[in-house]
Design goal:
There is one protein chain. This protein has 205 residues and is an alpha/beta fold. The protein has one domain: 3-Layer(aba) Sandwich (Rossmann fold). 29% of the residues are buried.
């Protein structure tokens, strides 16, 4: 089984991945942040490093999806390949932080890769307002994220909502994280109950 968690920067994907892996005994696959050689450079100069960063993520996520399907295990994945292609890269292009030449090249790569991958069995989307995202980003205190612009987060949120509104690849569960704390046992139990219902088809969530 392949469960994937989608959401903007600071929405709680890594936290929920860790908690669900512990609860269900699923194998966690985290986003490659610490070992990413482009991330710090990207936040310092988005226009210069946007294409390099997105190709790195595309490659990393493609390998991850292939590994997940070949493993035969139940896996919970922190962020999906679809977010790179439908949200982050188009957003950089629209903000003139990625050239049309680079964006077309990137899109061609994704189109080819998408023919070899399957969507997750369940996609969990963590919906969060910009103020919640900012609060979470500040709380975790990653130095390279300190310069993230509010308009950048807002544009990403708008694209997430547009993508989720048209998502038909498989089962979808939307969790609004503005008024819950995933580390709170009661809030987590409520989310887990909804996940079980989505996976086992007890009722529409």
């Amino acid at each position: 089984m392949h469960i994937a968690i989608a959401g903007n920067i600071g929405s709680g994907k890594t936290t929920l991945t860790r908690l669900l892996a512990k609860h269900f005994g699923w194998t966690p696959h985290y986003e490659d942040v610490e070992n990413n050689p482009y991330l710090h450079s990207f936040y310092e100069d988005m226009q210069r490093w946007s294409f390099n960063l997105q190709v790195y993520f595309l490659n990393s996520r493609f390998r991850q999806v292939i590994d997940i399907r070949n493993s035969g295990k139940s896996v919970v994945q922190d962020r999906t390949i679809y977010e790179d292609a439908y949200i982050f890269a188009p957003n950089l292009h629209a903000m003139n932080l990625m050239s049309s030449r680079d964006f077309d090249n990137y899109s061609s790569l994704f189109e080819l890769m998408s023919k070899f991958i399957q969507p997750p069995d369940l996609l969990i989307y963590l919906r969060a307002s910009v103020s919640t995202l900012v609060s979470q980003i500040q709380k975790r205190g990653r130095e390279y994220e300190a310069s993230i612009r509010l308009d950048y987060l807002k544009h990403l949120n708008d694209r997430y909502e547009a993508w989720i509104g048209k998502y038909t690849e498989g089962k979808l569960l939307i969790v609004d994280v503005d008024n819950i704390d995933l580390e709170n046992p009661e809030d987590l139990a409520s989310v887990i109950e909804r996940i079980n219902a989505s996976l086992h088809g007890l009722f529409q969530v």
